[in-house]
Amino acid sequence: MAAFLYRHAGSPAFTAPSASPFTDVPVGAAFYKEITWLASKGISTGWDVGGGKREYRPLSPIARDAMAAFLYRYADKPAFTAPSVSPFGDVPAGGGFYTEITWLAASGISTGWDVGNGVREYRPLNGIARDAMAAFLYRYAGQKEPADPENPAAGTVTVAPDVEILEPAQLQTAQVTSNTVVLPSDQATDIKPNDVLVSGITTGTPDGLLVRVVQVVRDPGGTTLVKTKPATVPEAVVSTGGLLEVTGTPVSSEFIPAPDVVVEPDAAPTATKPDMARPFAETSKDVFNKSMTFKKTVKGEFGKPDAPLTGNGSVTLKSSVTAKATAKMTLDVGFLQLKEASVVVTPSVKAEHSVTAEGSLKGQVTSKLGELNAAFTFMAGPVPVVVTAEAEMNANFSLDGNANVVFSSSQTVTSNHGFKYNNGAFSLVNDKPTTAGIQNEYKASASLTARASLDFDATIKLYGIAGITFGIGPYATTTITVTTASGEQLSWTCPLELGVEGRLGVTAGIEIMGFNLGEWEATVTKSWPLFTANPCQGTTVIQPPPTNPTPTPTPTPEPEPTEGNSQRYLTGGYMGVGYEVQVDGTVRSWGRNDSGQLGAGSMPWRSLPGPVPGLSGVKSVAAGYQTAYAIKSDGTVWAWGDNSTNQLGDGTTDSRSTPARIQGISDVIDVAATYYGAIALKKDGSVWAWGLYTMGADAMHAEIRPVPQPLSGLSSIKAIAAGSSSNYALKSDGTVWAWGDNGSGQLGDGTTTERLTPVKVSNLASVKSISAGNGTAYALQTDGTARAWGSNSWGQLGDGTTTWRSLPVTIAGLSGVAALEGGDGNGYALMKDGTVRGWGYNKLGAVGSGDTAERHLPTPVVGVTGAVAVSAGSACAYVVLGNGDALAWGWNEFGQLGDGTYENRARPVAFGVQGSPL
Fold first, then answer.
1. Tens digit of pLDDT for each residue in 767-779?
2. Is the pTM above the cut of 0.70?
3. Distance between CA atoms of residues 98 and 86, nearest Å
4. Torsion of Cα atoms, 282 then 287 then 292 then 298, to 10°
5. How far is CA 404 from CA 360, 450, 451, 525, 746, in A?
């Protein structure tokens, strides 16, 4: 034992004494140097036999209690408070070597024997064999690391002493196969046989790395060939000190859309780090989060039985899908033995489908939405467990009948999928889904059976080796039947079922977690009906308008007395809608109308502006996600559109397609809208809020306010602004305060920490106006300096980079700025000379530069002079000219440019008339 500890200490330089301290260990005896070194360190001083003499008894067996004492002293008697209740039935509290034995157990070096009924024994007087001695020293040598550096309460994990965690620089030019790693020799000097090599996602290891070294072949000055075999997580993390729960941290997320699918800008866009093989994603609660829209028209065909649809009609399919997920791993390892391991992915899929059918149709249409590739890690202390996910999404629609019908459905489905191993038992996690946000709408003049569904199928891999497969498919099905009695109006029924189909299976590879399924195979398929209703039972049939009808003018009500507006006002909402306040105080709208956000009742989308009935005396409009707010000159606020998260402020979740006044709030001078809520500024300088996420974007801290309520901590406010899930207030002293989501640093306080109460934006003063986009904010200072902070994946901060900023930076090359405007991935500046500059995301022409090249610096919008106002929508923008005309450019999938078309425009076009680019 003396020799073991001496070698473990690195065989330190030591001169053995000329006179032995022990009567039974003569000078020069076997292991004399090691025994006297042990005595000099106070690790073992032997037995006092009287007369000033001591014995070491080198040939006597070592008891387990003495071994605990040796190691405790060898560790230099670390500070440790022994527990008041002994963890062992055979070691009484306060007994011999009690502190040393309980320290040994607390350090994970030995936990004794489990003898049943929750009792463990240490067996302190038993001798310790050489194999147990080796195990003790191996565990002692393990590195104790924080399980979660940001959470001290998470405890520690013990990393095996032969673990080599490779840095990205070592693997930059590495060549990795299933059983070899080739890397420059100067990067492999510390690698030796039997090491466990571990790496996260790097350029050389895109799927991570977890292998044990079999052989090392070195070529000095050249490359080193490392032959490997697969390792398991418990070989790297030998002890977790109990059950460890870890949340997945995103590394990358990439969506490859089908040609006819439009991907919405990310809520947390991805950037690229030099040492990463994949796009890098800022840390958030979701391991991926992607939104997309799809629109397709299919005509029925006669005489072609293989055609997707047969018949004489046509169908237009529209889908909006948001797919996101969180992930969690549990791990419990005790001394190289796996006790529990699980990996569970929790996808949440929001699917909005609309089916517009005309004529006789029968068949099914399946359209691929795209492929999603994501990577995330679970950090078990310093050891990354790398998980990659590959998913494919498809939209399916089936029809059977003869109809002129519109059927739309929306629901959000969340469920858990994965596996769990616990003390030799393996099971699949395939929980019953939950559903929320259910909305349905029908218009029909005949009958039809329609079914809309989404397939989300994924394969989850651990270190690039397949582990589990799962699929989640929210569906909506309805049979619409029109009935009539003699001399009566048509009426109809539409029994509806919403549900989820789930699939889960296991493939080879999860033995990487430390257990082997052998021949175990299983695939589980389940269908859960979650919601049934007949929302139109006995109602009168509403004839839907024909496809692409000629707009019929809607009579505009007589305007209320108003002081009028000095100029027209245009603004855009998230995802394809726009609004205009005219000089006479009336409002027009255009674009998509999924939730009644046009404010003109249930009607098709429109690409030219039309009136919002019942509104007059309006001075401005604020737009959120499928919701809009009109602020009248009398200080009242009117709202319409989606209300699934109380964003209409009326105490209900009933959506409305026409404006209604929000009660309980008055004297309002401005409203700013987030995705799912709003804030309002009153004349007294106070700020009020309603809806969802008004005090934080994270669902873990969601606060729902069904009706307007004042926000504490804010006073003397003169202006407000809102991004997708963050809020801003400009005080009369020129400072800016922010709260809500901060995943991209958009609160400007130098952190990415979500704030539930307002914090002051750092390094910013003398501000005269503010604006906000999706994850980005802008401020114009009184000296004309333009500042920005937050997300910058497309250069929307205008500083010439794509680096995200958690503190304000100066927008480059701008002077003589009259106003700043933030968009969804873009920034705009109205210059005092009447020109406009744009920058940021430009794949759909949102910069207005006449091309689609990404712009990281302010760039002139072509053909614009004499501008007096600029505003932004989702990847599009509007300007009002001094002569009263208006122009628009950018994304136009839903007709949101108001030019009578659905064509994207990279340069401005005349707004409100069917025209061509300037």
1. 999 999 988 999 9
2. no
3. 8
4. 150
5. 9, 12, 16, 35, 47
